[in-house]
Amino acid sequence: xxHSRLPGLVALLLVLAVPTLLFGHAVVxxxxxxxxxxxxxxxxxxxxxxxxxTRVEIRFPADVRVTSFGDVAGWQLxxxxxxxxxxxxxxxxxxxxxxxxxxFPFVGANPKVAGTLTWPTFQTYASGERVEWTGAEGSKSPxxxxxxTAPDSSAxxxxxxxxxxxxxxxxxxxxxxxxxxxxxPA
Length: 186
Fold this sequence. Notes:
Blueprint: H1 6-23, E1 27-29, E2 32-34, E3 38-46, E4 53-59, E5 65-69, E6 76-81, E7 87-96, E8 101-109, E9 115-119, E10 121-125, E11 130-133, E12 144-149, H2 153-182
Parallel strand pairs: 2-12
Antiparallel strand pairs: 1-3, 3-8, 4-7, 4-10, 5-8, 6-7, 9-12, 10-11
């Protein structure tokens, strides 16, 4: 009887461990977006070491035009630009204790063509160790990737026409209810 619980326990441990292994690195969310969209991106950085993270740097893909950043309490932002004043990266400095994560929000305009965006990120610890999240997918230290696809125009069109009728139906039901409530009892 005790042995019958072993497979369930192993499965539970795998379910709990696999997300940690798969997502234990600097990741930019969302992982998918559409062409030409102004997207709020968030760089999520966990600290898996026993010392604090003190610096996080990201380089933006050339196809994305970053326009603004959100404030993050306890962190200082340095915006990196090229000679044409185009934003090419950002550096945040602060303190992220072990077993915590931090999120750095920014807004960018997506490219007008479908493809993938790669987000090279560098995490520096108080010990001086620097981890480069720049590798290929499936590597030990992969760069985060966002897939950019064209919006599905047929689904969007169907959604628009379906949603366009909802307020009118709600108005009709509300007027009918109002009319019934104002009717004098016979």
